[in-house]
Amino acid sequence: MVRFSYLIPRIIIIALIAIGVFMSQDPLLQRLSIYRLENMTGAKAEIGELKFDPGTGKLMIKEFALADPHSPMRNFFQTDIAYLDVDLQRFPKGQLVIKDGSVEGLVFGAPRTDSGALDTPNKTTAQLQPESATAPTDTPPTLNSKIEKIGQNWLDQFPVHTNIAPRIEDIEFLKKSDDLPLNLKTRLREQLEKIGSIQRQIHELNTQRKLAGERHPNPLRPSNNDKFEKDFAQLVQKSQAISKDFVSLEREAMQYRERLRLEYENEIIKLKEFSSASPFEGEAISKLLLTQIQEERVAEIVTWFKVFRDSIPDPQTSFLPIPIRGTNLNLPGVAAKKPGILIENLEIDGEGRFANEHLKFYGTVKNLTPEPHLHNLPITINLRAQGAQHFIANCTLDRRTPIPQDILKLQCPQFVLSEKLLGDDNSLLVTLGGGSQIQADIELNATGDQLTGKLIFRHANVALHVDKLNELVGGQDVALQLNQGVATVESFETTVYLSGTIDNYRCDFTSDLGEKFAKAANQTLQNNTNRNIQRIENRLKQKLADQLLSLNQAMMPKLRTGNEMLSDLNVLLKTTIEEEESRQRIAPRNNPNMIR
Amino acid sequence: MGVAFGMMIGLIPKDSLLPYLIALVALLTPSNLACLGISAFAFHTLGPKLDPVLQQIGNWFLTLDALTAYWQPISEYSIFSWMRIENTVVTGAFLLGLAAFLPIFLISKFAFAKFGTRAHQFLAQTRLARWLVGSNQTPNLQKS
């Protein structure tokens, strides 16, 4: 016969155990949670107090801390208090799902007084420590040489060298003396003297001829006739030569006048070339001014991205879970396994260190689970952080596939920039004044190590000042002029495109700064040049007028006089010839035997 | 019976609901709780060393074509996911425990029958037993 008397004490034992479990459910759950968390993370977990209401599924956890398995003397995070709503309907299916929850006083990276390593750590792996990763402080040496090269290229491609604006000192026409060329004046004087001399000689010859006629009325005296004719022929020859020279001189004077006009017109054409010159080209300016700042900024942001990725709890890399015994098989026909613990929506409010900066933040975390590969949605984190920089971060960590896919969208609504030097010392150096504001929209996508991204920086309240400009492109004079123009550039936008891997990426950017800078600079230069051209043109006109006046005053009366003298000379010669011919016509009638 | 139940409880990993259910069943049977505890502790210590064997047994069983049709209806029970049947070691340990239950039960019964009295006398002489029951009394060990 089977005895059942033993059953009563056994049932009492079971009942006592059940009552004990029920009465001490909170401490038991606390111990169980710590045990599970330590197994999952591979680091010490601490819970100050835990209260669970099985009727409503409300869970309250006080003073929860989880050590960083990679840095045992630091907590991965700790919270003051967390209120969580457990989905009781999914609990029987083996899932602990937090439908909704809020965490207050969340602190990342707080130091610990004791080691957070488990007593029997199964393994330790060396991994990048978030606090050890810092933004680069020094510009890589290659970047400086790159900027120098860009500056040199810019100088080489600069359309106008030496003279970017007309300088009155450089106008050759204005350097000309108002006086006539010495040779013209000398030759004119000589010609006039020669004409006068011939006139005098003809007068003398006539006087001598008349005296001879009076003394020796016989016109048939051969000696008198021969000498006169010989002298007269010489005078005629001289007269013809002088007339020729004088005409030539007159032509030269006219040519000189034309040359003056031509030189004037050439100078005007040269000036017009200045007025249409736009020496600054936008794209080259953008490249020269922004390459350094953009590359530094992108390097900083990529480092931040790495830090951000490492700072966010990544179930696959952040923890060192204790390996389970055996293998979990996907049994045929059985629905895919779901994550054991899932936090669907968690509001967080706390503070932490990020890229060596202390930040206060609040936001939400969705679909957080230690087994993200078993969940059908990626982990999303939306944060608003306030510290030295205010930013909004939206992060998606997709660990559903073997290759992790992360998307980080970062918005810095207003970041005040300190003074920066843009460009190159040897070509064009511009100061971007302190106090300008940047609004940044950053989107980075990382698939494994492959990185792509688009970064938009909108600068406002910009104050630009041209500090240095190479002498080849105008030097300090033009730099001063440029400052009038670039002061009008108040904002600009730069878009950077990233590609490559996280450790070896390439960035290309476009910006409207160069275009705005070039437009303002070219406009200012053109305005100044046009004013300068107008002034120089007026001076040129004045100079031409002075030159022509000088020519007219110095040459024209003398040329006129010379012409009159030549005319008189011709008349004199003609008269003399006619007189001589008439005298010789009379002579044969008086003496038909005269032989000449 | 306590030794056999203890063997099953000890072998199966404790993150499954199975060992707790077996413990509940064991409590409802007239098994020796002390033997159950000692046996469970001993096999719990031994269990991880048997993991390769348990894994092979579990893997063989879970991949049996004949059972394919049954997994889906079984998995619809909520308790399925708490039992972690899909784990090779859990299933292997459970199957090994089931297979070894009767032999262990018989062996332990035979052993207690044969060596129980002598073991009783030997244990009664130990300081621990005397300290537990009092120096002048002999502990009365219950038969398994």
Describe the protein's architecture and organization.
The complex is a heterodimer of chains A (596) and B (144). With 596 residues, chain A is an alpha+beta fold. Chain A is built from 10 helices and 16 strands. Chain A has helices at 7-23, 25-41, 141-157, 172-175, 182-215, 222-276, 282-311, 475-486, 513-554, 556-590; strands spanning 45-53, 58-68, 71-86, 96-108, 341-354, 357-368, 379-386, 390-398, 405-417, 420-423, 428-432, 436-447, 450-460, 464-469, 492-500, 505-511. Chain A is rod-shaped. The model of chain A is unreliable at 121-139 (pLDDT under 50). With 144 residues, chain B is mainly α. Chain B has one domain. Helices cover 72% and strands 0% of the residues of chain B. The A-B interface holds A 3, 6-7, 10-11, 13-14, 92-95, 324-335, 337 and B 13, 15, 24, 27-28, 30, 48, 51, 54-55, 58-59, 62-63, 68-69, 71-72, 75, 78-82, 84-90, 92.
Give the overall shape of chain B, derived from the CA principal axes. elongated
**Largest sheet: number of strands, sense, barrel closure of chain B:** none
Structural class of the secondary elements of chain A? alpha+beta
The total of helices of chain A stands at: 10
The count of DSSP E runs of length 2 or more, i.e. the number of strands of chain A, is: 16
How would a textbook summarize the main sheet of chain A?
Answer: 13 strands, mixed
The percent range for strand residues of chain A is 25-35%
Topology:
The complex is a heterodimer of chains A (596) and B (144).
Chain A: H1 7-23, H2 25-41, E1 45-53, E2 58-68, E3 71-86, E4 96-108, H3 141-157, H4 172-175, H5 182-215, H6 222-276, H7 282-311, E5 341-354, E6 357-368, E7 379-386, E8 390-398, E9 405-417, E10 420-423, E11 428-432, E12 436-447, E13 450-460, E14 464-469, H8 475-486, E15 492-500, E16 505-511, H9 513-554, H10 556-590
Parallel strand pairs in A: 4-5
Antiparallel strand pairs in A: 1-2, 2-3, 3-4, 5-6, 6-7, 7-8, 8-9, 9-12, 10-11, 11-14, 12-13, 13-15, 15-16
Helix pairs in contact in A: 3-7, 5-6, 5-10, 6-9, 6-10, 7-9, 8-9
Chain B: H1 2-11, H2 18-27, H3 33-46, H4 51-62, H5 68-75, H6 78-83, H7 88-124, H8 127-133
Helix pairs in contact in B: 1-2, 1-3, 1-7, 4-7
